[in-house]
Prior knowledge:
Helices cover about 0% and strands about 50% of the residues of chain A. By secondary structure, chain A is mainly β. In chain A, strands 2, 4, 5, 6, 9, 10 and 11 form a seven-stranded mixed sheet that branches. The radius of gyration of chain B is 13 Å and the shape is globular.
Amino acid sequence: QVQLQESGPGLVKPSETLSLTCSVSGGSFNTYYWSWIRQPPGKGLEWIGFISESGFSNYNPSLKSRVSLSVDKTKNQVSLKVTSVTAADTAMYYCAGDEGAGYFDYWGQGTPVTVSS
Amino acid sequence: QSVLTQPPSASGTPGQRVTISCSGSSSNFGAISVNWYRQFPGTAPKLLIYTNNQRPSGVPDRFSGSKSGTSASLAISGLESDDEADYHCAAWDDSLRGYVFGTGTKVTVL
């Protein structure tokens, strides 16, 4: 059973960079596309981007200029960076896995991020 | 931003059937399957229906999905109090080359 665990600072100052890590265990890291998805308080889900074990990635155009994903195969980890954050980036951030069929079989529990000075 | 449109809320009494709609466009619904996720308060979403009408192991057959053209639906029959949750539709969008989610529907059991 694949398990995902997000981690990172819960508070980020405006204009700084948000950095989160997703640690994957219990499954085959290299058969999945790993996505980051966020959910502002009281709102719907927004896909941020995905990356494969080989580093193939794509991003939501609305965030592409500020987002980057990276993968560490040795640690089975996927990382997210969002630059120049504002209050609009305050959200619960989830890591999720898609085995290539277009849906997310596995989700992490999420990690809350607040952007505030 | 959401590009799939869902009603903000739906409700029913125990035992009733509730249907939730999800409207997309040809770039995301044309030839692509729709998936549904259920999210209880304070928890992560979980896959409920995949590829339009398939249920993962453990999901009761009270939940069913369908798709026609650029619209999809999730039906919950025999509504139970434990079905109170947020329901999100989602699909792969060819023009975006990424995933899109619906606006989400909160189901309330009266």
